[in-house]
């Protein structure tokens, strides 16, 4: 009921079982030597199929021990008859094994074919689904275009039915200015209105500011009290020499004052 957990798996440290050296006595045939072809992982540990092979080997050993000696013609004939019967039995057993293997292979082939058929059906269904979706998109696009054209034609017919007699209507200025979609607010280019041509329509154009003559006239009309401008020259913050240059000490004082601030 207890177990231990190691750092390594048992499979990493597992090796083939140890087979010690052996010596066969003269005149004896150990039964275990008949199973020398079975190794660990290939027949060992023994299962139902291996147990059937062991039973057949034992039966064959018992049959070989029961064969009559070849000392008389009757024994030879009997021996040949027994060998033919054993050969037919072995062939029948072999045929039965072949049938079993063929049945297993057929089952495997059926599963592979079934899986391939399912994959093919799934792929065909996916392709049909994509094809159907593309047709649906094309159908919806065509229906949308038909509805759009229908609405456009209906608007045209309704507009024509408003004045189907071709009578002249008087302009309703109040209705035009009340409707922001009218020609007053949004004129159409097809009737000869191009808004880009009159882009500078709302630009301010002043004669007194844009022309020299206007500036001269504006200067004459202005009172003379606004023209004298008194500007006081700023005093230099540095020490200036007679030649107009600033001394190095003066520049240093300005820098020190800025650093102090």
From TrEMBL:
Its main location: cytoplasm. It is found in: Cytoplasm, Cytoskeleton, Cilium axoneme. GO terms for cellular component: axoneme. Coiled coil: none annotated. Residues 4-156 form the CFAP91 domain. Keywords: Cell projection, Cytoplasm, Cytoskeleton. It holds the Pfam family CFAP91. Belongs to the CFAP91 family. This is Cilia- and flagella-associated protein 91. It comes from Loxia curvirostra.
């Amino acid at each position: 009921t207890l177990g231990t957990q190691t750092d390594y798996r048992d499979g990493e440290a597992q090796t083939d079982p140890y087979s010690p050296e052996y010596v066969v006595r003269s005149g004896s045939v150990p039964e275990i030597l008949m199973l020398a072809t079975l190794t660990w992982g290939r027949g060992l540990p023994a299962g139902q199929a291996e147990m059937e092979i062991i039973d057949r080997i034992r039966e064959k050993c018992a049959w070989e021990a029961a064969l009559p000696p070849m000392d008389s013609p009757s024994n030879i004939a009997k021996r040949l008859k027994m060998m033919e019967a054993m050969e037919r039995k072995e062939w029948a057993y072999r045929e039965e094994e072949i049938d079993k293997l063929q049945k297993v292979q057929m089952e495997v082939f059926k599963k592979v074919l079934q899986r391939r058929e399912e994959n093919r059906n799934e792929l065909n269904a996916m392709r049909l689904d994509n094809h159907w979706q593309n047709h649906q998109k094309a159908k919806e696009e065509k229906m949308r275009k038909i509805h759009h054209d229908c609405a456009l034609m209906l608007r045209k017919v309704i507009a024509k039915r408003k004045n189907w007699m071709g009578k002249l209507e008087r302009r309703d200025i109040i209705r035009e200015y009340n409707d922001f979609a009218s020609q007053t607010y949004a004129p159409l280019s097809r009737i000869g209105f191009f808004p880009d041509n009159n882009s500078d329509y709302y630009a301010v154009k002043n004669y007194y500011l844009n022309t020299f003559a206007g500036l001269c006239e504006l200067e004459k009309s202005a009172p003379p009290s606004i023209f004298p401008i008194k500007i006081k020259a700023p005093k230099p913050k540095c020490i200036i020499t007679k030649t107009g240059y600033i001394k190095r000490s003066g520049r240093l004082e300005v820098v020190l004052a800025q650093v102090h601030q």
